[in-house]
Specification:
Distance between the termini: 18 Å
Number of strands: 13
Structural class: alpha+beta
């Protein structure tokens, strides 16, 4: 079993360079998940990492439920099933880095088992790359080079395939609620 380090709100505050009272408020607002251990609140490394990833805005973070179907493991995030590699069960959070997502207008035979058709709902350009948001039943963000963007000829409203490997799904972990159990 791989167990994260657990921090008190005061220790988590020291790591993030904020007060323990701000940590309590973040937990109360649902911005930061935490474990209820007896009468104490503890924050794990992976919970801090998930929070920082959300701040960065670069992660696709989804909440869902682990299900088993046809000898495969998925996380049901609502209208979408995402293949995962986990021993966890119940409610979890998962993330997929936008850099790990491949976009294509054509069917492709590949090792990626998460293949979802989506509609382009947002396109943003930065200095080096294009940030494409697609609706696959849930919004998902992909980052591609400007060259790929031009070659694929992506436009708002286009139907695009999003692909990512099962092993690209990171931070599969339980969702803990400080007001109760998982």
């Amino acid at each position: 079993m791989n167990i994260d380090n657990l921090y008190s709100p005061e220790e988590a505050g020291q790591i993030l360079k904020i007060s323990k009272y701000t940590i309590y408020e973040m937990i109360k607002r649902g911005e930061l998940t935490a474990h209820q251990v007896g009468r104490h609140i503890r924050i794990s490394d992976s919970q801090l990492k998930a929070y920082l990833s959300q701040l960065k805005g670069s992660q696709n973070i989804f909440s869902g439920t682990v299900i088993h179907k046809d000898d495969e493991i998925f996380v049901d995030i609502g209208q979408v099933l995402i293949r995962v590699n986990t021993t966890l069960s119940g409610d979890v959070k998962i993330s997929v880095d936008p850099d790990d997502i491949i976009l294509s207008k054509q069917d492709v035979i590949c090792s990626a088992k998460n293949i979802h058709k989506g509609k382009v709902i947002d396109i943003k350009e930065d200095d080096m790359n294009m940030r494409i948001t697609l609706d696959i039943g849930a919004p998902i963000k992909a980052v591609i080079t400007k060259t790929s963007y031009k070659e694929i000829n992506i436009n708002m409203g286009d139907e695009i395939l999003t692909m990512f490997k099962t092993l690209s799904v990171k931070d599969v972990k339980y969702i803990y609620n400080v007001r109760g159990s998982m």
